[in-house]
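Entry 0007
Protein: Scavenger receptor class B, member 2a
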Amino acid sequence: MTRRSCAIYATGIVCAHLLIVGIALVVAQVFQTMINSRLKQEITLTEKSQMFESWKNPPPPVYMEYYFFNVTNPEEFLAGGKASVKQIGPYTYREYRPRENVTFLENGTKVYALNPKSFVFVPEKSAGDPEVDIVRTVNIPFVAVMNELNSYSFYVRPVVSMYISSLGIEIFMTRTVHEILWGFKDPLLSKIRKLKPDVDEYFGLMWKKNGTHEGEFVFHTGEQNYLDYGKIDTWNGLRKMSWWSSNQSNMINGTDGAVFHPLIDRNELLYIFAADLCRSIHLAYVEDVEVKGIQAYRFAPPNDVLMNPKENPTNAGFCVPAGECLGTGVLKVSVCREGAPIVVSFPHFYQADPAYINAVDGLNPNKEEHETYLDLQPTTGVPIRACKRAQLNIILKRVPGFPKTKFINETIFPIMFVNETATIDDDSASQMRTLLLIVTLVSNFPLLIVGLGIILLLVLVVLFCRNRQKKNEVKRIDFTEAFHSFTTAKDDTAYTQVSDKLDDSSEKPANQPMKNGSYIAMSPVEAQKC
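Output (structure tokens):
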């Protein structure tokens, strides 16, 4: 057997084995199952500690952008006209949110943590100086007092109204952005504090929220079921809330939005518990996106999250008292936040009833600037990019006993909205791409084997054809050489015809011998005598 034949047979054997093994692995999905099992399986406490190290100190920078609605026609609104606002901002703060007091519970199946948040102003990402810029907005402490006095006797309200007017306090106030955000000493609250010492005389939308946490959380680690990874078990010791009017609405569902289980499917709904909204919301798949070279699924709240209970009966539980419901796109949260009649929505009443949008001039809702969404890497469940957008509003209406409100048309008045954004940093993105590349190579290893087998099959065909062609050429050359040798031999062995008659003796000398064949001229030699 020649060396060429050996190579052909070896290539054929290797090719056959690769194809058989590769196709068997593809059909059995061995490597994909192995990866999925690794993502789902139980992990050791050491591995868990390493995994939660990044969870404790999330690397992507989080930014809070605050936008305010400056009221341009307060007198016209109080006279019964439509309010007009102008958006100012953003005023951007870097948010730091490490998890503290992380403690594993119940053999590592749960973890306890606090999540304090602190904010640092970022001037290069802001539109102005919050300590200098002025904004005119609704005097929320005044509205809270009027709302509280609704339960008092009618005769008490005019007296309180005159007293408040004597202090020079109006329905609209003018303050710096910093004061409205981080707090100021309110003159009305200071007077009330003298009667009720438990009332805080300072007011601010973010008052006492810099450096504080939103409560005590206990999370599932996913050790028993990977689908429970990151889900909230209890919040402030509660497994369900009590201020909404149905058991379903009071449920604490999902994660806190920082992590999700691996192997996310496009068809599933993801739940997030938002402590600032006092409820859980769900997100649905929207589209595939790419962030810094990483493929991700985009999830966003669908239209039915804040839909009117007439169109989505499951939202009836968020009407408090039961039956007193607002329209589509808004949620009254004053049930869990005592004081003013606070209402939350998406910025500029995005996805809300057009009546709320048309009630105020200067609003322009659009998907690009006002949609809340999460971009998640589906294999790991890690958020790659997030935009949480929410608007704070207050209900302004006529309050009997307060003459300054007698011409007001009831309006859900926008105060400000926040855009909380986070995008994976470059180092983490590079590590993620490397991890996903390894996962892709391992999961597609059977396909690589099949591909290599196909390549060797092509090589085998080429070798076989060339070997066949080589043999044909050898045979052709041997035939040509044989034919040429035969022709040459025939030319070299030609003979003279043999005579069939004896020569006429009379014409020859007597001593000339008889000859047969060709005549060769030779001189006769005489015999020598002894």
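Curator remark: Residues 1-42+436-459 form one domain. The CA atoms of residues 133 and 205 lie 16 Å apart.
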